[in-house]
Amino acid sequence: NADMAMYQAKEQGRNNFQFFSGEMNSRMVNRLTMENDLRHAMDRDEFFLEYQPQFSMETGRMFGVEALLRWLQPEKGLMPPSSFISLAEDTGLILQIGEWVLLRACFQNKEWETMSGEKIITSVNISAVQFKQKNFLSSVRNILKVTGCDPASIELELTESVLMTDVERTTETLKGLKEMGLKLSIDDFGTGYSSLNYLRHFPIDRLKIDRSFITNIMNDQDNAAITRAIIAMAESLRLKVTAEGVELEDELETLRSFNCHDIQGFLLARPSSPETIKQLINVNR
Ligand code: C2E
Ligand code: MG
Ligand code: MG
Ligand code: MG
Fold first, then answer.
1. Atom 46 of ligand 1, residue of closest alpha carbon
2. Gap from CA of 273 to ligand 3 centroid (Å)
3. DSSP characters over 73-93
C-alpha cells in the first residue's frame, strides 16, 4: 500500500528515499492525493450518475438503461470510472460509493416509472468488494424498501471473477437476490473465466458480451466466432444476451444476423442525464 511504502522509505532515511525515481514518487503522491479526494467526494456531492440506454434488437425499443458512475472534481474535471474504481475498491470506499449508486439508481427508476407508467429496467454495476460484503443482501433489501422501487426493474451486473470465487457463498447471495425479485447479469462476459457448469446452476438472467468481442465483428473472424458461441450458449441456457459497445452500423447488422437479443453502444445512445432518459421514455410510448 502506497502510504506504507512511502512511510518505510522515509524511515529508512534520506538515501533510501532518493532511491525512488522522481516518477515513482510523484505517482505515489498522485495516488495519495486521489485517495484523499475520493474520501471527501461523497460529502462534497461530487458523484452523479449517467444512464446509457439498452435496446431490444427485434423491436428497436429502449427497454432499460445502465447506471454509470461519474465523478466531477471541481479542480480536475470529470474523472472516468476506470481511473478511480480500483482505488475505491482497494481502500474500501467502494462500499459507501456502491451503496449510494444503488440508492440513486433505485430512486431514479422509481421516478421514471411513476412519471411514465412504463416499465424500465435499470442495471447497476456491483463491485466484487460490495458483493462479498457480509451485509450486502440486507443493504439491497433496505434500499428497495426505502425507495419503493420495483425489484423486477433492477438488474445487478456482476463480473465472472466475482461469481467464480467462493462459489458456495456466491450461490447463496445470488439466491437471496433472486428471492428479492431482482434481475442478475454477468458483465464483460468472455473476458474472465466462467465454469460453464456453474453458469448452468447460477440463477443468472443475462450475459453482457464484452465490447472487445464486438469491435469490428463484421471483419474479425475470431470475434465473430466467440460472439456467435456466446449467443448460442445463452440461448440454450435460456439466458438473455446483450452486446456491449456497438459503435458501427456494420457491427449492428452482423449482430442482427447472429440473432443477438439486445444491444448497447455509442451507435445507439451515449450515457446521458436522467432528463434525457425521461424524454426517450416518452418517445418509447
Ligand atoms: P461497464 O459496466 O462494462 O460499462 C460500460 C462502459 O462502456 C461504460 O464506460 C460506457 O460508457 C462504455 N461504453 C458504452 N458503449 C460504448 C461504445 O459504443 N464504445 C465505447 N468505446 N465505450 C462504450 P464507463 O462509464 O467509463 O465505465 C467503465 C467501467 O467502470 C464500467 O464498465 C464498470 O465496470 C465501471 N463502473 C461504472 N460505474 C460503476 C459503478 O457505479 N460501480 C462500479 N462498481 N463500477 C462502475
Ligand atoms: Mg456494466
Ligand atoms: Mg463492469
Ligand atoms: Mg461491461
1. 125
2. 19
3. ETTTEEEPHHHHHHHHHHHSH
* Global ipTM: 0.98
The neighbouring-strand residues paired with 55 are 62, 263
Cα(230)–Cα(160) distance, integer angstroms:
14
Residue with cell 425507495: 147
Burial of 17 (0-12, 13-18, 19+ CB in 10 A): middle
CA distances from 83 to 37, 43, 130, 146 (A): 13, 20, 18, 31
Report the candidate in 247, 216, 244 with the shortest Cα–Cα distance to residue 230.
Answer: 244
Q: Are 90 and 128 in contact (CB under 8 A)?
A: no
**Is the pLDDT confidence value at 4 over 90?**
no
Q: Which of 21, 22, 25, 23 is nearest to 5 (CA)?
A: 25
- Give the HSE-up count for residue 76: Cα atoms under 13 Å, Cβ half-sphere: 15
What's the confidence (pLDDT) of residue 6? 52
**Could you tell me the three cell numbers for 268?**
445507439
Supply the pTM of this predicted model.
0.92
Residues with CB under 6 A from ligand 1: 52, 68-69, 80-82, 85, 98, 101, 125, 127, 157, 187-188, 211, 244-247, 264-266, 271
Specify the residue with its C-alpha closest to ligand 1, atom 16: 245
Ligand 1, pocket-test mutation among 85, 102, 207, 216, most atoms within 8 A of CB: 85
